[in-house]
Fold each of these.
Amino acid sequence: MKLALSLIVAALFTISGLGLSTSGAADGSSLVLTKCTSCHSLKRVCRGLGKKDLAAWEKTNQRMADMGMTITADELDAISNYLANAKPGESPVCK
């Protein structure tokens, strides 16, 4: 009975779009790999890890958007949050 109830609840969350998301660092890193590397090398991005806080990354990334990077506000936030929390030398950005 508990299993059936759990499956029903999980199905309802999935159908309604309220399921838990696996966004965050994984999405941020994949966005860095696709968006940032369209103009910059990973080496350049990697050099900035651990040197800028969230506000500095937001300013930098907004400047990139203003220069023509095609990106949504949510993607911009995900990239800034990822880069602000990534450690120097961290994979996959710093291979």
Amino acid sequence: MSSATYTPDRWTVLAITNAAGERHFRILASWYGGFLGSDSWRMSSGISKIEPGPDHYRVHNDTTGSVYICVKGAQGTSAFVSRVLASYQEQARAAGATIKELDSIEDVALPVDPELVQRLRESVAGVRVDLDERLPPEGADQHDGDAP
């Protein structure tokens, strides 16, 4: 399994839905080639986890284990990558699928890990809070018990 880290110049999030209605999310990343080089692009294998940071998102991918460092403010595509995306969208439509570019990475709805849900349930199973004991009675003055 590869565990490469990529930091694209531009990136966007794609929601891909197959003909059966199954949906997953990918990063479409691109790099500028400079004066003498050509632009390049890469599509991730499928987002498994997003870790927001102060100025970027760390986007983990399920199949390859690769990580994309997506800088906030760099979301979008170049004209070249827009054409690549349009071509993929046409091919998807012909196969009864859809590829949609999302407005925000925060629109990604990842599936919940069932093992994590079970661990969370187990960790709070014994916790009981009786709200009536924690809140002062309706209309009561709120003060410290030692205060006059």
